[in-house]
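User: Study the fold:
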Amino acid sequence: MVREQFDYDLQSLQDKIIELGKLADVALKTSMEGLRSKDVDCALQVIDNDYKSDNLEEEINDLAIMLITKQQPVATDLRRIFSSVKIASDLERIADHAVNIAKATIRLGAKELSVSLDTIEEMYKIAQKMLTMSMDAFKDENLVFAKQVAEMDDEVDELYGKAVRELMVSIPEQPKDINQITQLSFVARYIERVADHITNVAENIFYLVKGKHYLLNE
């Protein structure tokens, strides 16, 4: 009976991770929608909803502590608990970066953008796919997906370099738009960091399944 309750709580922990992943995904999508359409209300929605991710991460941490202190987890259980806490931390940071993108959108205001968002959009599409795949990998303990996620991070890194170069080149041509260029360079950086956090999730899935730490993207 004790083990049944423990397994139920472990499943609850996993369900909360999946829910946090969905919150991070929605925050990221909404922040990018706001950026594209210069929609301040959309950006404010991301900021206002961030407490949901913060609260859920706290719930995950509290549940993890309860499982360790009140139950008697074996080594594989402990791996699941510790990796869940680490994954939750990375997912919460992804939601934080969505908030950062939303704040950049507010700073940009309603003025038409003088530089292209194409490379940033490309970065986002890959990062969003990485997030979806990482959550599927977590649910199914799918190491093939986890490895693919880490490999996709290289694409985001390359595009980040491209985005920064494009933005820097535009400064002499459009010196009056330095604020726009600066804010968009921040957005590119936030998306690059999102991809890094998703790679951390993939590494923790490897730890969960294999019981060893693997650096998937050096």
About this structure: The first helix runs from residue 2 to 37. The two ends are 45 Å apart (CA to CA).
